[in-house]
């Protein structure tokens, strides 16, 4: 296990979430699945307690801790995409698997974890600064899933 790992709290579906992420994003995989050695407040001996997994190269630990805590937008994975096809693929996988759309390239998966599906054209435009950044930012503010062609058009003015 990595020295620094992101621990994500799930009600009871950490393994299902990890398998979904591994099947959706490159450089992702499910590692060890650990079962509870005895009963605990939100589970029984033998239930999946933790799952080691990697999402787009980032080591994570899913903890089936019960319903006490929920994910919020205060934490999200930001996935950089190269084009509209890649943006669509990830967005559609998350939203189409019981997730929900939000604004400005944000969506939530069915477990409530937030994702930013962010085309590089948008981050490049924002990094450019000035009027180009303002036009791209203003265009993004009206979007749910980011429209690469609209961001490119906004960059050009």
From TrEMBL:
Segments passing through the bilayer: none
Domain PhnB-like: 3-118
Any Pfam family matching the protein: 3-dmu-9_3-mt
Signal sequence coordinates: none
CDD domains: PhnB_like
Record InterPro entries: 3_dmu_93_MTrfase, Glyas_Bleomycin-R_OHBP_Dase, PhnB-like
PANTHER family: PHNB-LIKE DOMAIN-CONTAINING PROTEIN, PROTEIN YJDN-RELATED
Designated name of the protein: VOC family protein
Classification of source organism: Bacteria, Pseudomonadati, Pseudomonadota, Alphaproteobacteria, Acetobacterales
